[in-house]
Write a structure and sequence with these properties.
The complex is a heterodimer. Chain A is mainly beta. Chain A has strands at about 5, 10-15, 20-25, 30-35, 45-50, 55, 60-65, 70-75, 85-90, 95-100, 100-105. In chain A, strand 9 and strand 10 form a beta hairpin. Chain B has strands at about 5, 10-15, 20-25, 30-35, 45-50, 55, 65, 75-80, 85-95, 105-110, 110-115. Classes of the chains: A mainly beta, B mainly beta.
Chain lengths: ~110, ~120
């Protein structure tokens, strides 16, 4: 079967660092995407990993371990506008498989 | 400006009526997708199309139908057979090929919130 697990909710303080984990078991693997989705809006692309290791993009970084079926998204210097849902998605042959998302609330 | 448009943003229908949601893209993408999102849930795939005049069922296709007569357009019809149609519907497109390839990030439209009364 196909399964992607993420925590349902997380909270953090402005200026802090937060790590959102994603574990996956899928029949195929062609890369892992992270998307950000603000309430009532469409998801927007954050990062992509296909090889093991860390990809850094400004305040956001994403890590992948294919042998462990594990990824995380690291958000540094949190801002209030980072309050959103973060979706982990695994690439299959012709479609993406999405996790249920992690809702992050950033408090002042 | 290239992008994906969905209309309308909010849609209200009476129970038992079919309704068609529009999705148009001018990105020259081959593949298009329809997702449904319920409150506090992730995205569930309804239908997708890799090429004109061809489409495949996703995980929750029952009660929905699609067509792909033109590359730019992928309308979704929510039929009266769909038991619980009230949801947020998202259309997406990708250039095509392997879904996980680095050039193949999904671009999403703004979504249509359908409420069935």
């Amino acid at each position: 079967g196909q399964n992607i697990d993420q925590p349902t909710e997380m909270t953090a303080t402005e200026g802090a660092i937060v790590q959102i984990n994603c574990t996956y078991q899928t029949s195929g693997f062609n890369g892992l995407f992270w998307y950000q989705q603000h309430a009532g809006e469409a998801p927007t692309f954050l990062s992509y990993n296909v090889l093991d290791g860390l990809e850094e993009k400004g305040r956001f970084s994403s890590f992948l371990s294919r042998s462990k079926g594990y990824s995380y998204l690291l958000l540094k210097e949190l801002q209030m506008k980072d309050s959103a849902s973060y979706l982990c998605a695994v690439g299959g042959t012709d479609k993406l498989i999405f996790g249920t998302g992690t809702r992050l609330q950033v408090f002042p | 400006d290239g992008g994906i448009t969905q209309s309308p943003k909010y849609l209200f229908r009476k129970e038992g009526q079919n309704v068609t949601l529009s999705c148009e893209q001018n990105l020259n993408h081959d593949a298009m997708y329809w997702y449904r999102q319920d409150p506090g849930q992730g995205l569930r795939l309804i239908y997708y199309s890799q090429i004109v005049n061809d489409f495949q069922k996703g995980d929750i296709a029952e009660g929905y139908s699609v067509s792909r007569e033109k590359k730019e357009s992928f309308p979704l019809t929510v039929t009266s057979a769909q038991k619980n149609p009230t949801a947020f519907y998202l259309c997406a497109s990708t250039p095509g090929g392997l879904a996980g390839a680095p050039y193949n990030e999904q671009f999403f439209g703004p979504g249509t919130r359908l409420t069935v009364l």
